[in-house]
Design brief:
Elements (H helix, E strand, L loop, with lengths): L1 E3 L2 H7 L5 E5 L5 H10 L3 E6 L4 E4 L8 E4 H11 L6 E5 L2 H6 L6 E6 L5 H14 E9 L8 H14 L5 E3 L6 E4 L2
Helix pairs in contact: 5-6
Amino acid sequence: MKILKTRNDLLDILPKNIIVAEIGVFKGDFSKIIYEKIEPKELHLIDIFDGEMCSGDKDGNNVVWANLNDEYLKLKNEYNNNSVIHLHKGCSFNTLNNFPDGYFDLIYIDGDHSYEGVKKDLEVSYRKIKKGKHICGHDYSKNIFQSVVNAVDEFCRDKNLKIDFLTEDGCPTYCIVVD
């Protein structure tokens, strides 16, 4: 496993001009970083975009609350004329299932942090990711999100995969290369 300082450093070493899905968009701050660093061919932003939600930064600090309905409208307005960025309002599992198997080059999971939610996102991502490409996710932290750690570790065991990259952010990002 290779250790990287931040998830931005991870994005720096991933391929450019690829098809990306981000599960769990919140206010779209990390979406902008993905867009700038990866320069994707397609960027699919997937979130329930419903109700009130809170989130912190990549280190789990600076927690803010947001109305996800309002955030959806802001992002929709911001990306209205952008042919690369596609907003999807709905459950990540159902939304990803609308894409053909092997469609994505990178899927970044930062949505439902429950064990069951992470497992479902990992399982559908496994079908939707191209072989040799990347499933990544946020909050791989035993201290804060044991449910994420348990789901990711079990997924890797079940699929005979490993975490290839891990960041040292306060809430680390994992990256798995799917064989």
